[in-house]
Amino acid sequence: xxxxxxxxxxxxxxxxxxxxxxxxxxxxxxxxxxxxxxxxxxxxxxxxxxxxxxxxxxxxxxxxxxxxxxxxxxxxxxxxxxxxxxxxxxxxxxxxxxxxxxxxxxxxxxxxxxxxxxxxxxxxxxxxxxxxxxxxxxxxxxxxxxxxxxxxxxxxxxxxxxxxxxxxxxxxxxxxxxxxxxxxxxxxxxxxxxxxxxxxxxxxxxxxxxxxxxxxxxxxxxxxxxxxxxxxxxxxxxxxxxxxxxxxxxxxxxxxxxx
Length: 259
Ligand SMILES: C[C@@](CO)(OP(=O)(O)O)[C@H](O)COP(=O)(O)OP(=O)(O)OC[C@H]1O[C@@H](n2ccc(N)nc2=O)[C@H](O)[C@@H]1O
Ligand SMILES: Nc1ncnc2c1ncn2[C@@H]1O[C@H](COP(=O)(O)OP(=O)(O)O)[C@@H](O)[C@H]1O
What we know:
three-stranded antiparallel β-sheet; 27% strand
């Protein structure tokens, strides 16, 4: 059985640097969460069409895995690819909560692209694979590269590895679904005009642990947090002292206490 783990991510910091072509540009430290991941399996099966099992609540055409498969086909026109998925189905073991700011759907897409690249021996570079991933979602390129920690900028397509070990993290995902598009819409309407790129210059050079120990305000580290509070007011009930906010939410995280 061929399989791959699709890890969650947290945003140690997420700063909005601008807006163009319908997307916000960001500067963010993405960190892989070592102990939270989905698992994708390519299982031998005769399929009439591209088949995904394990994500019953997501219509196939909306699934990021399906969208990644389509994008890969369009980009490579590789008939082996088509052939392979007539004889294998994709089975997903979901563990990452959805609409949680943990990159669940995007990580599945990135892991799918990496595993397919390997099993179908695709003749394209990792950079090209990440570019294909960017057409599926803004944070898919990070998951294609699969760095433990990286500075991500642009819309999410510029991914530069940051040399540090992943931190032991505790994650708390309240029963509040935060729609990424809605949170970004709120940001654009209420906060975009107030961004101040000088206020976070050189953060990309600082180790994540030092940043979390030095800055205790989640709204300062993550520009989307005030927008998420406005978009999903119930989030406020779940805010806790010493916890930080990931992506467009709804998850909070903090450094795990030494066991
Ligand atoms: C917010 C972040 C931070 O890591 O992650 P999550 O919280 O979703 O995990 C990402 O930027 C989420 O990227 P992703 O989840 O791929 O968003 P997409 O589906 O590509 O975009 C959904 C919508 O959000 C808005 N959007 C997204 C990314 C971006 N850099 N600027 C935007 O304005 C756009 O309106 C877009 O149509
Ligand atoms: N493979 C997938 N796993 C989870 N959600 C998916 C997947 N494909 C598409 N989605 C859709 O993406 C939405 C956002 O989920 P997810 O990407 O996990 O959250 P976030 O963007 O907050 O990290 C879900 O509500 C779901 O409708």
